[in-house]
Amino acid sequence: MLKSSTGWILIGLIFIAFMFLLVEVTAEVKEVKTLSELIESHVDLKEVTLSSNSVITDRNGDIISEIYRDANRVYLSYDQISPFIIDAFIATEDQRFFEHKGYDFIAITRAILSNARQESIEEGGSTMTQQLVRNLFLSHEQTYNRKMSEILYAHELEKTYSKNDIIELYINTVYFNNGVYGIEAASRYYFNKPSERLTLSEVAFLSAVPNNPSHYDPLTNSDRTKLRQEWVLKKMLEARYISEDEYQDALVDPIQLNVRKKIDTHPDYVTYIHQEFIDLVAESEGYNLKIKQAPSDEAKQKIEQNLQERVQHLLAQGIEIETYLDPFMQNLAIKTIHRQVPDTDIQATAVVIDHVNNELIAMTAGKDYRKFDLHRGYQVHRQTASAIKPLLVYAPYFEEYNVPIQSTINADNICYKEKGEEYCPRNYGGAQYGMVSLATALKHSYNTPAIRILDRVGVETAFSYLDAFDFSKVDASEQRLTSALGGFTHGVTPLELTRAYTTFARNGSYQTAYGIKQVLDKNGQVLFAWEPEEMEVWSKATNDKMRKLLSEVIESGTARKAQIPADYAGGKTGTSSDYLDLWFVGLNDRYTTGVWVGKDQWLSIAHLSDQSPHLQIWKEIMK
């Protein structure tokens, strides 16, 4: 037994002597440069970055979603760290921190003697700098080889960073169990408050955890954590960081955990914001142009992969994505849809845009939506039916021919030859109405007048007006007369159609309404913000005529059930063939709201059409 202990002691002494000579002596000779270069060839000590939680906030500045994967960390600068926290870690982990050069000769000696008595590696004598190196660059295996690397790295790190920088990095890297890293995230997770508001007792309690995170887990082993907390306070007292009175008060100060779960609300809106953020980065940093100019599909895929990696890198930097979300309107839209469409197999979405400020303030994705599932608000394209008529037919007609609003159009049946085939559109029920006013044709959604007008304007000319809008799947292949009735190959999304209708609220000009206000870095500096261009689609004279026609749709047309008390209200319904889709997009003086109702399986909802759920949803949201 004596021989074994003596052997351990000799090994330890040799190790100490070797390390002392290696670090101290080489500091005086040219080989130190070789040592630095050797370490730099393995790691870049000058570029130490830690991931930090990103957040999405609503229009009031409240967090609606925290973004992080495995590491829950909220990074603090040195100036933001409470002195109590710094004192607690120095008192318990590294009392000679401000004196050593990364390693502590005395602590290492003490650890080796202890290990010799235990005949195993039980203590490491690591400084906070060594622990930081271990967390950042090395493994946690208990071997002398790893310890040697740890000391060398720590010595180099102390030459690169100030003591304050090292404390900052250390306190942001220590692990507090349950996926929590750093004191700020720990404070928010276990006590649901920022670390600056922690009491001395709470600081000591949390400081107890990193020594052995699973053993001192506050959620499962709070008694152990409490005992360790008392030891931490004792060490702080011995180091004269706290007074006897502070020590006694902290011992009896009760610990009340208030575990805070990850914030992740409004999944409909947040899911869309994730996509819009990708779009914003792609536009701001030139990825869109690169994708457009890509010489092959393989090159395009590589650029898209680089974009995704860039986005993930940004989200790991602790950014804040400020949005225009109005939580009240969002919740109102969701509740209204559930109330008006109780059938479990029928879905509905609503998009609400504040067209005065050009802000997307609410958007639903479907009933009982789960984050990142298929989003019916912006990912699903459906046939617009007659809801496209104001944009593709009537506004272009006014703009091209400047006809008076009292003009008439034939509402009888008609047949055309289109692409070698006969096309004979009919009004609903096959009725013929003779000559009718444009207002009558639109408010009752007659089909044959719309076909005649599109033919008169010219299909290509009429479609040129749609170029201003963000209809991602409407292209030249859609240029045919059937499109006057919404007979597109793919269709449009509720978001796309609602955005387009804001033109009627903006004197004929279009500007894309976004959900993201701006993106800030962790220092509050603006990283990204949309710079949308406003484009005049048609004149104010045309727009005034369209507003009049749209108002009659609500006053005495197909949308009478959507009447609301307002200075102005107007919109257009749309019902696709076999009642696969029910649409209503309308506006008042402040908001433009689009509503779609239908089944995911493209099945009829004719039994629901008489109840007009799309109109009832719009009415409840808008009134």
Textual characterization of the structure:
- It comes from Halalkalibacter akibai (strain ATCC 43226 / DSM 21942 / CIP 109018 / JCM 9157 / 1139) (Bacillus akibai).
- This is Multimodular transpeptidase-transglycosylase.
- This protein folds into two domains: 2-53 and 69-252, Penicillin binding protein transpeptidase fold (Orthogonal Bundle); 337-622, DD-peptidase/beta-lactamase superfamily (Beta-lactamase, 3-Layer(aba) Sandwich).
- It is built from 23 helices and 18 strands.
- Helix 1 (2-26) runs antiparallel to helix 4 and helix 3 packs across helix 10.
- Helix content is 44%, strand content 12%.
- The strands form six sheets. A five-stranded mixed sheet has the order 2-1-5-13-14, with helices on one face. A five-stranded antiparallel sheet has the order 7-6-18-17-16, sandwiched between helices. Strands 3-4 form a two-stranded parallel sheet.
- The protein is of the alpha+beta class and 623 residues long.
- The N and C termini lie far apart (88 Å).
